[in-house]
Design brief:
Strand order of the largest sheet: 3-2-1-4-5-6-7-8
Radius of gyration: 23 Å
Distance between the termini: 63 Å
Largest sheet: 8 strands, mixed
Shape: globular
């Protein structure tokens, strides 16, 4: 098949390579012309701008966006839509808020354009291992584009999960679960490191991946990280969030679904960004006031 792809960051460039390896023709654009030239050397077709990208695709066109969620995605869609023809399809593979995707599908649908929200998981390993794709939109459009999804995905790694918005909703919850899993592993390894037994954390991560009920790809990655740097001395304990954890918690509140683990894992990330928490200082001061407990001073 033929696909346009906009955004050649860490995932977009690798997705392009995987598609080309699967025999697809991929026309690419990125504001970074060096990124375009890099994949042109691997048989991608480069475009000088959005208009040039659209002109090099055969109707009905399919264009995949791999740009940051929010304004960059909105601005790209706004610039692309007037260049497209009835029956063309835009695919948003970024981490967009599902309600935005529902609204975008409605707006584009009024112009006889199709919109697919494709929650995409796999990170930098997707080129080799394949991606997991959670796809929302019209089933007829999904079926037409299925060869693209099949090439990008790992075995059994893609599915049509519902109408517009469903793909990004499922990806949002997926990332919320990821927050909780990461927090559980992090707390467990910290407790092991604090023990008097001096365990080899890389050894344990590898051990647990053989028959243990907590085995996972994340543990494989943990083992690799501990082998490279046993005490993680080169990593600062500052944990960013992409926004999807926040949306998951907001959704849980809106729907009155208890999600204490996911919520606390999000708040733990906020705490990681504080060099000296004011709330912790308040607690220390109050303990000193009511119980005469000692405090550490600066």
């Amino acid at each position: 098949m033929e696909l346009g792809l906009i955004g050649l960051g860490r995932m977009g460039a690798n997705m392009t390579r995987r598609l080309i390896g699967g025999g697809h023709r991929v026309v690419v654009y990125d504001r970074d012309h060096d990124a375009v030239r890099a994949v042109e050397q691997e048989r991608a077709v480069g475009a000088a701008d959005l208009q040039n990208l659209v002109a090099q695709l055969t109707m009905p066109r399919a264009i995949w966006l791999m740009v940051p969620a929010g304004d960059p995605t909105s601005q790209t869609i706004e610039a692309l839509a007037p260049l497209l023809s009835a029956g063309d399809t835009l695919i948003d593979g970024g981490n967009s808020y599902y309600k935005d995707s529902v609204a975008r599908a409605a707006r584009l649908g009024a112009q006889s354009l199709h919109f697919v929200d494709a929650g995409t998981s796999g990170g930098i390993w997707g080129l080799k291992e394949g991606y997991c794709l959670m796809i929302g939109g019209e089933e007829e459009v999904f079926r037409r584009l299925e060869p693209i999804f099949r090439t990008l995905a790992t075995k059994n790694g893609y599915a049509h999960v519902g109408p517009s918005g469903a793909g990004h909703f499922v990806k949002m919850v997926h990332n919320g679960i990821e927050y909780g899993m990461l927090q559980a592993y992090a707390e467990g390894f910290e407790l092991l490191r604090a023990s008097s037994y001096g365990p080899d954390l890389a050894q344990l991560a590898q051990l647990w991946n053989h028959g243990s009920v907590i085995r996972s790809w994340l543990l494989e990655l943990a083992a690799s990280a501990f082998v490279a740097d046993p005490d993680l001395t080169n990593v600062r304990g500052y944990v960013e969030d992409s926004g999807e954890g926040r949306w998951t918690v907001m959704e849980a509140v809106e729907r009155a679904v208890p999600a204490p683990v996911l919520t606390e894992s999000l708040f733990a990330r906020f705490r990681s960004r504080q060099e000296d928490s004011f709330s912790a200082r308040v607690i220390a001061a109050l303990r000193q006031e009511f119980g005469g407990h000692s405090v550490k001073t600066k």
